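Folded chain entry
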Amino acid sequence: MAIDFTEKAKRYQAIDEIIASGTKPKWSEIISTLSSKYDIKTSRTSFFRDIQDLVEKYGAPIDTDFETSGYYYTDPKYRLPRFYTDENAAKAAKLLRTLLSMVKNNPMYEEAKEVFESLAIENHDLALENIKINTKPDNDRIIFTGAPNKEISTEIWRNIEKALSENLVITFDYTSLTDPNNPHQRRVQPWQLIFDNGNWNLHGLDILKNVPRRYTLSEMKNLEITKEVFTLPKNYDFRKMTPGAFGCMCDDEFLDYKIHLHGYAARYVKNRVWGENQTIVKDEKNPGPDGDGIILSFRTNQFLPIARWVWQWVDEAKPLEPKKLVEDWENKMMKMRRV
């Protein structure tokens, strides 16, 4: 038999409001108030069952006064979290908690975890009769996977947080992947933090070069906040700078891409949007070994990650446009043949 979560949620919230009023009402007074104020009809048996559920399933600190037998909260600040009384919302809360585990090495993780624990997500089984939402790690049915993120020092994270909130220029020593042996000092307007593929990146303006850049937080050293205040540009949002689906690496040049794919790769690409003006058509000239060849076309400014992405499908993909991508792919093929 299906449970009407909406009605039960309304009843729980109403009981919570009545008890939280601090008047120490008796059970008969609560039932009467439920009827007169909230238009909720309930029996004595159902009421006592609700009280038991609120205590056992939701940890509500309900007790009765020795002299009056009236109900009250032993913790006057307690209020029933609203998501507990809605199954779908409880599932959403658990999903967020699972997603949060992806950023464990972020200094904000512990703070966010405390917020969730204060709502009793860790300590209570969000169950409503025959529907159970178990939060134990060995029973997670919805999870997020990805590359583990590097640990970020609390000092660097806090300084970036402050610089972001107050629009203050920062300086730091930075080691790039293209020049790993020579760290350089950067002077940057911090615009936005981006979490991508297990790493935190800072998107901002390189003041000396006057161009937007991205910096991996784990590679920053000796970060300091200056007193220089900057004005956040209208177009600072990274999501407006690239329409592609290849992470946070992009450049200034927008190109039109055409890529032949067949086999598993062809089936895989049909499930996502890879860039602006995307089209997928059958490749009549080169149908592939199984006749399932397609041409994926789109526009974006993410050449380097696309070049790597096409190469990972080397046995089921071949770039057709732009010329720059075709030449990159052919050069890699030549190197492979020489090995």
